[in-house]
């Protein structure tokens, strides 16, 4: 069996499966990796091939006896193909071996084949056991998901900016023969040697979280290009830029009615995430986007986790100005912290983009939030109804904070009382 290891989950958190293909370090010409890279082209069109995937992640796909998939792992700077199969209620993982001269692949030595697909076809259609001990047989291929996109489907445009792991470009995505849509393409650094395996997995965290999301106030994932370096994550385009830049805009500045709409739409998007037990962990005006119609889209899921509670906030770049006291005191991350972050985001929206706690040293900010003596204050033109929601979101005791669902209901209660004007 394979000895590949999966990365451990964050304590107290149900981690999302990383179920997209991950690009690998560029092979050294003439090396074993180089020849494996060439053979990988033979398998890329096979729907049972899932690319880079850990053992734990593969296990989540194996639910019926005889189900199998092929994936790729890294061990000691070498890449290997692995067959994962469910047999007799046991999840088994076998490396596909190669002959000494690297000309053939095999699972047992009886029938080596020149390519991985031909090896899988032999074991599947001849019902030949892949291991003499377990007698496991490949019966039902687990197909990769529909988010896989080929690079040929995308027309790359101008560079829009850069992030922690690479650059962001405008683009056009072909969906069928007659339809094209505007997209934003996040690319991983082409020099993958500068990224660790954990960083590569973290780069894909956003896509893994977004695969299950579909809401008008959450940025849409179209798919992932990951069959060659660098990896691309393809997202819905939001031509209005960030919510932060929109509220700062002096040309065509937002009206009070529009600021109310922005406030409600951020809450709508976060209530949707809350429903599916996704903790964003980095809600801020900079991480919300706005489209051409001034509709807010929650974005940037790079720090997000799926689950109910986390007690591990060991991240080098935590946005502490947006974090509640329970995070700064006990490192407790929950959906309630997102609610606190929403209160800070309301401050950003209504101050037209001011940074919270401007002019206060970081150490004093952390101390003040921990002690409950410091929190953002409503702007002078913020309606009382919004100020009340902001105050509730910034409740010191995270166990007493309202949920996003409750805050959303208060928006609509205010609408009925005619305290709100909606566009």
UniProtKB/TrEMBL annotation:
Residue ranges occupied by any SH2 domain in the UniProt entry: 48-142
Residue ranges occupied by any Protein kinase domain in the UniProt entry: 154-422
Protein's UniProt keywords contain Lyase: no
Binding-site list for ATP: 186
GO MF: ATP binding; non-membrane spanning protein tyrosine kinase activity
Location (main, coarse): membrane
Assigned EC number: 2.7.10.2
Catalytic activity: L-tyrosyl-[protein] + ATP = O-phospho-L-tyrosyl-[protein] + ADP + H(+)
Organism (species): Ditylenchus destructor
Pfam families per record: PK_Tyr_Ser-Thr, SH2
Keywords: ATP-binding, Cell membrane, Cytoplasm, Kinase, Membrane, Nucleotide-binding, SH2 domain, Transferase, Tyrosine-protein kinase
Name recorded for this polypeptide: Tyrosine-protein kinase
């Amino acid at each position: 069996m394979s000895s590949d290891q999966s990365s451990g989950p964050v304590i107290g958190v149900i981690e999302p499966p990383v179920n997209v293909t991950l690009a690998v370090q560029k092979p050294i010409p003439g090396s074993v990796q180089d020849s494996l890279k060439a053979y990988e082209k033979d398998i890329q069109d096979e729907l049972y091939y899932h690319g880079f995937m850990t053992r734990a992640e593969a296990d989540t796909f194996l639910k019926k006896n005889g189900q199998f998939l092929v994936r790729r792992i890294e061990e000691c700077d070498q890449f290997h193909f692995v067959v994962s199969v469910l047999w007799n209620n046991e999840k088994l993982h076998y490396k596909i071996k190669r002959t000494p001269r690297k000309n053939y692949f095999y699972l047992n030595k009886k029938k080596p084949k020149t390519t991985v697909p031909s090896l899988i076809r032999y074991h599947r259609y001849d019902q030949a056991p892949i291991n003499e001990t377990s007698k496991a047989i490949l019966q039902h291929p687990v197909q990769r998901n529909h988010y896989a996109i080929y690079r040929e489907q995308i027309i790359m445009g101008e560079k829009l900016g850069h992030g922690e792991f690479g650059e962001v470009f405008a683009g056009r995505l072909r969906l069928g023969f007659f339809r094209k849509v505007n997209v934003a393409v996040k690319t991983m650094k082409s020099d993958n040697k500068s990224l660790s395996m954990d960083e590569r997995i973290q780069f894909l965290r956003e896509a893994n979280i977004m695969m299950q999301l579909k809401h008008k106030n959450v940025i849409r994932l179209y798919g992932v290009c990951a069959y060659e370096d660098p990896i691309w994550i393809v997202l819905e385009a939001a031509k209005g830029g960030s919510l932060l830049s929109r509220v700062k805009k002096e040309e065509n500045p937002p009206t009070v009615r529009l600021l109310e709409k922005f406030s409600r739409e951020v809450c709508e998007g976060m209530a949707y995430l809350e429903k599916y037990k996704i903790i964003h962990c980095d809600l801020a005006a900079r991480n919300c986007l706005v489209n051409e119609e001034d509709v807010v889209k929650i974005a940037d899921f790079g720090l997000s986790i799926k689950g109910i509670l986390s007690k591990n906030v060991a991240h080098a770049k935590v946005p502490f100005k947006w974090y509640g006291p329970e995070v700064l005191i006990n490192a407790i991350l929950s959906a309630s912290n997102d609610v606190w972050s929403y209160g800070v985001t309301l401050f950003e929206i209504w101050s037209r983009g001011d940074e919270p706690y401007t002019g206060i040293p970081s150490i004093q900010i952390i101390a003040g939030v921990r002690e409950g003596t410091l929190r953002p204050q409503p702007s002078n033109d913020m309606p009382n109804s919004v100020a009340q929601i902001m105050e509730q979101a910034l409740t010191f005791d995270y166990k007493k904070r309202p949920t996003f669902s409750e805050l959303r209901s208060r928006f609509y209660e205010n609408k009925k009382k005619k305290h709100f004007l909606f566009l």
